[in-house]
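Section 5: illustrative case.
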């Protein structure tokens, strides 16, 4: 859908440029070329990452989605550089657009199509937890705002007759594209390098609070490795030190399963079991306990800071 609609939008914008010779419309059309290339790449990537995990890739091939997002961001930055050159030259030598009424009509149609496509891709990306689709949706929506800015500029030029507005709008498009491309690239590289994702940590925190019971005294040193829609999470969990191995194993496995079932991504959790060693008495409500050296005062709250801490 993204590829077909992006081709349709590109043809519409190319027609608008053909009739108007507007630098601003040219800049918007160049961005649509990026949309077409990005949609084609994303389609291939999503087909590839949908293959099941195997012995060679035990966590699946989901990280390729982040490569797709980074590639799209790079294309956007490249388009911004091309548009910057064209718009600067047009500002120096002057611009003489024509048939602005027809150009405004065609750009309005292209913009509305992009708005619908961008919202659809963002929705599907969120529903399927697809980084590639989410990035495409973000880019297409940025394209809509670009088209809206071009439309406003063309309208002002049509009313005032000031042709210098045309390359100026193209330069503003360059700035917006550069910001959008940089954001997509930085987020993609962050995911490839498994940078901390605060949204993921907050979701995990909520699940841990939801299913925590008195024997789960503390969770810390939590880390997450993201491979597309599959996440591998490991953490340390503190349990009563007098439990035997079987009891600690069964209880933490049951805890893991509840959190994985509640988590919106596919994945697994591996808990490393730590004994309390009587250090947590004030924050442990587990009974019966015959090794307690202090009275229970209050449960230690589970926060993002406590989760990533390594006491």
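Designed sequence:
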């Amino acid at each position: 859908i993204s590829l077909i609609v992006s081709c349709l939008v590109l043809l519409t914008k190319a027609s608008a440029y053909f009739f108007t010779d507007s630098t601003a419309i040219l800049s918007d059309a160049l961005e649509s070329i990026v949309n077409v290339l990005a949609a084609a790449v994303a389609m291939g990537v999503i087909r590839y990452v949908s293959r099941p995990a195997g012995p060679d890739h035990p966590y699946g091939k989901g990280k390729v989605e982040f490569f797709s997002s980074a590639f799209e961001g790079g294309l956007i930055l490249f388009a911004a550089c091309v548009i910057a050159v064209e718009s600067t030259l047009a500002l120096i030598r002057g611009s003489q657009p024509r048939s602005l009424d027809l150009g405004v009509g065609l750009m309005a149609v292209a913009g509305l199509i992009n708005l619908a496509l961008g919202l659809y891709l963002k929705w599907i990306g969120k529903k399927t937890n697809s980084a590639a689709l989410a990035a495409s949706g973000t880019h297409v929506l940025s394209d809509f705002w670009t088209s809206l800015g071009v439309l406003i500029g063309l309208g002002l030029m049509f009313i005032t007759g000031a042709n210098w507005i045309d390359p100026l709008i193209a330069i503003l498009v360059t700035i917006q594209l550069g910001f959008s491309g940089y954001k997509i690239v930085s987020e993609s590289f962050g995911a490839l390098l498994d940078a901390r994702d605060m949204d993921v940590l907050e979701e995990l925190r909520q699940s841990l609070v939801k299913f925590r019971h008195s024997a789960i005294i503390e969770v810390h040193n939590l880390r997450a490795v993201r491979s597309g829609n599959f996440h591998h999470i490991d953490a340390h969990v503190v349990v009563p030190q007098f439990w035997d191995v079987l009891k600690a194993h069964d209880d933490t496995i049951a805890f893991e399963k509840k959190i994985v079932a509640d988590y919106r991504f596919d994945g697994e959790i591996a808990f490393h079991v730590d004994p309390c060693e009587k250090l947590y008495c004030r924050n442990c409500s587990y009974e019966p306990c015959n090794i307690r050296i202090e009275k229970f005062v209050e449960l230690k709250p589970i926060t993002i800071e406590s989760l990533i801490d390594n006491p």
